[in-house]
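Hey, resending since the last one bounced:
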Amino acid sequence: MSCGDPHETDCSEVLDHLYEFLDHEMPDGDCAKFEVHIDECSPCLEKYGLEQAVKKLVKRCCGHDDVPADLRSKVMGRIELIRAGQSVPDQDVVAEARAAEAAARTQGVQSAPGDRGVRSASGGSAGAGPLGATAQE
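The structure tokens again:
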């Protein structure tokens, strides 16, 4: 995407790294470039606003689920492999999550019959998240 106007930082670069900018995961110098671009480019400002709203909605709706520690460590391990440029083993993460859920049930953490949601620390069910997926899928 490009608005057609010349910018110091190209629209495609801004959009390629928009989530890094939103998540404050880029160096300060790059953040300053992106802020200047977004201030002067209304299509990128619109996209930024939309993505910011989506992040807020997801946080509000899905940010309260407890994640099993072993699943979190597996996900973080894969992220580190990707960041290091290493290949990620082909494994079925959903199957692993379901196996972890089954193991948790055998240890006394039960869901209500027919409840596919995740139990939070308070005992409430988190239910399905965006796109109908549960927090563990």
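Confidence is low (pLDDT under 50) at residues 109-137.

Sorry for the duplicate.
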